[in-house]
């Protein structure tokens, strides 16, 4: 594949990947802050207001970081932590009766796939046309 196509695909892939995180923060969590806090409280999330502020920060910082490929491994780690906690608290399909678990299992599996993408970025970096690659961080390994 020509390098220019590969470069464009890397950027488009990062944009597609982070859209769900950025839209979650900007389109739901920020404008509906008090409602989301109530929902979190109903799910047993400790310190829901504080946790929501943290979630919004992780979503925005992690999303922009991965999108730009700027300290992308750190951004992907933030998104991975968000996904682990969100999946545990909100998509625990194993706690539901069998006839009610299908939707949560689908959400769990979607989050698992997104976690895999974050692990891939943590392991391999953001790819071409990223700030990390321009600044020489692209090939740094986790130590």
TrEMBL record:
Q: Name one Pfam family in it.
A: DoxX
Spans traversing the lipid bilayer: 7-27, 47-71, 78-96, 108-131
A cellular component term from Gene Ontology for this protein is:
plasma membrane
Q: Which terms are listed as keywords in the entry?
A: Cell membrane, Membrane, Transmembrane, Transmembrane helix
Q: What InterPro entries does the annotation carry? A: DoxX, DoxX-like_oxidoreductase
Topological category with respect to the lipid bilayer = Multi-pass membrane protein
Q: Where in the cell is it found?
A: Cell membrane
Top-rank taxon of the source lineage equals Bacteria
UniProt-listed PANTHER family? INNER MEMBRANE PROTEIN YPHA-RELATED, OXIDOREDUCTASE CATD-RELATED
Q: Which family does it belong to?
A: Belongs to the DoxX family.
What protein name does the entry list?
Answer: DoxX family protein
Q: Which organism is it from?
A: Pirellula staleyi (strain ATCC 27377 / DSM 6068 / ICPB 4128)
